Amino acid sequence: MARYNLLPNESIIIKEENILHGGLMASYTNELILTNMNLVLISKGAFGNVKGIQTFPLKQIKIFNGKAQVLLGKTRGGYPQIDVYFSNGQEGFGFQQKKEAIMWIDTINKIVTGNSVEVDVSPIMAIPGVEYIAETLKGTMDTFKGAYGIKIKNNNKIPEKVAKKCSSCSASISGTKGQIARCQYCDADQQL
Question: How much is the average pLDDT of 88-102?
């Protein structure tokens, strides 16, 4: 810990190096310390020299519905960030890993309110619908792999192509074995 003198009744709870804080030119060089009384930011330069120390009293963190207003967000670069809302402003501290940011949010909440909190990770999750698109693309890739005889990872089987006659009009129908195919002449559906 660099040059922060604890008060007689103050104890360190957790500390983290490589914290992002500041404007556009900020980098992951700062140190963040959580005590039982304060959130302490030690600003460091590129070579580790201490530029300044800021203290944010925990008793100034806003509380709403029994939860400390410490939320999970993300930096401009897409990394996890904890946003801390104080009675006189807001501060953001960027972390390199989401699990560390979540642990800090929970620990701060325990100190401020005495309760653990379930962290809402939705602000850092992917765009809605991405899961559907990913599944569709996977299915498309599996179809191409099967068409070219490439084994599919999930079941390691090459889809078997079959051809048969339509049970309604006797036209030729082809496709993958086990799939439902629609006759292009009479629109009858049948399993291949």
Answer: 93
